[in-house]
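Anyone up for a design puzzle?
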């Protein structure tokens, strides 16, 4: 829902009360109502202050001291367009945090289960310490830069504002974390126990590091994170995960840079990264499994998060 602003600019207390009373029949549902040139004490006397969310705006140049004391936001340039920009950036920051959280929790969920299962059943962690360090670098530093630096768009104004009691992890995010975490966990378990059979290579858990089996395991895990990072750009169940991706140069740079760095680590990392060079066919398979994250994401989006009830009538205030 786009933010709607109403300017109440009256001189007498009677006129002010008359305007506020005129709004009461329209306030059928909880509403966010920005007001300028109003005294908070008058609104509280009308008995509607607790029914709606009032945001008091103050024009720093033309406004009075009385309005300044009662205001919640001060417009230093007296331009109400600044409020629209503030709303856009505020929602963009919230979305950026949500993107990073859902991506990070998915990686953590998979890495923890893989390490526990591998250490318990095989007595050896499928991923070495240096490999986990590289994954952690992708998950924290690179992901935060890639997902938290996208510019806001006008589409952010089409959504309803977030409530103060809204949980940080929404149902869509919860679906994302469980859905992609499940996919990654299944892929990793299949490769741990049957990867050497599928690729017709020696079992990496029965020979010394580095082995192609465990290198494929590490490479597939990273590929899934790279492509799932694209899925994580959307936090409200949108299907088009590539929307406006070209406008985020830093995101593209980080994703491409991570992919290139992964190639060098696998092919030339050697003993330091517990990696053994892979063949072209093995690389194609690893990349294909990573790309399947995008296809799996489209399936996850089709899963409903809740039963949709009949939408209530929207009340829009105009100036």
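Challenge accepted. My sequence:
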């Amino acid at each position: 829902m786009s933010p709607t602003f109403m300017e109440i600019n009256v001189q007498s207390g009677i006129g002010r009360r008359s305007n506020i009373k005129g709004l009461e029949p329209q306030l059928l549902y909880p509403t966010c109502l920005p007001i300028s040139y109003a005294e908070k004490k008058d609104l509280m006397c009308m008995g509607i202050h607790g029914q709606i969310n009032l945001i008091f705006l103050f024009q720093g140049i033309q406004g009075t001291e009385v309005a300044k004391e009662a205001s919640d936001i001060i417009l230093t340039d007296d331009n109400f367009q600044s409020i629209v920009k503030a709303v856009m950036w505020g929602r963009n920051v919230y979305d950026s945090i949500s993107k990073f959280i859902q991506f990070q929790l998915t990686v953590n969920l998979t890495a923890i289960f893989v390490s526990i299962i591998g250490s318990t059943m095989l007595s050896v962690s499928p991923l070495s310490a240096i490999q986990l360090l590289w994954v952690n670098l992708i998950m924290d530093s690179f992901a935060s830069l890639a997902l938290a630096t996208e510019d806001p768009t006008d589409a952010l104004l089409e959504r309803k504002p977030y409530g103060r009691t809204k949980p940080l992890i929404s149902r869509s995010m919860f679906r994302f974390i469980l859905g992609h975490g499940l996919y990654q966990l299944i892929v990793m378990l299949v490769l741990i126990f049957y990867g050497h059979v599928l690729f017709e290579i020696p079992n990496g858990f029965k020979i010394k590091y580095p082995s192609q089996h465990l290198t494929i395991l590490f490479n597939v895990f990273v590929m899934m994170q790279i492509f799932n990072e694209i899925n994580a750009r959307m936090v409200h169940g949108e299907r088009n995960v590539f929307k406006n991706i070209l406008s985020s140069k830093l995101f593209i740079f980080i994703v491409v840079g991570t992919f290139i760095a992964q190639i060098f680590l696998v092919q030339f990392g050697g003993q330091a990264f517990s990696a053994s060079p892979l063949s072209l066919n093995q690389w194609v398979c690893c990349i294909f499994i990573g790309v399947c994250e995008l296809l799996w994401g489209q399936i996850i989006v089709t899963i409903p998060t809740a039963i949709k009830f009949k939408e209530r009538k929207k009340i829009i205030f105009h100036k």
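A detail worth pointing out: Residues 81-122 form the longest helix (42 residues).
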